[in-house]
Amino acid sequence: xxxxxxTAADSTLRTHGGTPPDDAGSSVPGAPxxxxxxxxxIPPVIADEAALAAxxxxxxxxxxPVAVDAERASGYRYGQRAYLVQLRREGAGSALIDPVAxxxxxxxxxxxxxxxxxxxxxxxxxxxxxxxxxxxxxxxDTELAGRLAGFPRVGLGAMVEGVLxxxxxxxxxxxxxxxxxxxxxxxxxxxxxxxxxVDLRDALEKELERQGKxxxxxxxxxxxxxxxxxxxRKDPWRRxxxxxxxxxxxxxxxxxELWQTRDRxxxxxxxxxxxxxxxxxxxxxxxxxxxNVHALAAxxxxxxxMGRRQLEQWQAAVDRAKAxxxxxxxxxxxxxxxxxxxxxWADKDPVAxxxxxxxxxxxxxxxxxxxxxQENLIAPDSVxxxxxxxxxxxxxxxxxxxxxxxxxRPWQVDxxxxxxxxxxxxxxx
Length: 429
Prior knowledge:
DNA polymerase, domain 1, 3 domains, 6-stranded mixed beta sheet, disordered N terminus
């Protein structure tokens, strides 16, 4: 970045204010400036213990928040591990770390303990960072900040352009980051992703403070930092795309067996499951229940460029499912905890359906007044649970207690409780 660009960025940060932009770039006067190079150039990739130790010392000695980002290889590799970690901090500059060569970054995580980490869409990166020993105790999520501030587009590129007036090159976001060595253009892109992240954080903090929402955002960030790792999803095979076509239990058994076989193969080969066998092919086989390899090969997703051995392993999975007893077959639907799907409320409990309609209308109106998405104002699931089983006396105390029990933050409870109490009363709760 040139001195002139530095001056422009500082000016942008000083002058940013007013209402959120209607579209990216409208809050910054003049044409957006392409951001082509990191200000200190592309840093060398850290891929050995000595270089990592030097980086740990530099970032520990730095000042202020630290910008953190991670690149995964979604769609190429099995799982969601990090294949590049990018950081930037005042006094330390930028760093690109290869977590394949340096799989334990706990020393860096410890050096940054107590420091505020600035991430964009933090919940996407925290699981893979946690795997390599990096877990923040404090954070600022620029994507969530943008949502709370009412920005209509909250991707990193849109936010940097709309708030700071710079255009980030986003052409490498979906590449295979497990590639080694990483090409220079990819490394430039990765370094630029953290180049202005702290600047963006500072501007958004000012905007949230201007709107009276900063305390709300801080409560949200604290909740993200304190959240435990997500529990493994139960019956993940049920999320196979196209499952709505599968009705019979025997067919469900085929989906489960094919999905689990594919998952074992993908994990062993370290490739994305979709590269082993598509969801569409799994559903096709489940619906057809092929009798043999010849019949399987005639189905979409199995015939082209698939060898006899591969076909036999898939047919064996189908045959295993076909041999299951009735008691071993999966049930048609997952066991649901909590209220049924809202579309069924009118038939199951018309009074509850009326409560939900009134509550949704109230939450929508409040979210519009606050210029933020409804789901950030209050989790839709919390509203559904409250409306399905409201307190015996739906007053401020009982509704606030119920929302807090569902995990709502204090700011959400304070804002939404009066709206929901009124909605429940109007619907006769």
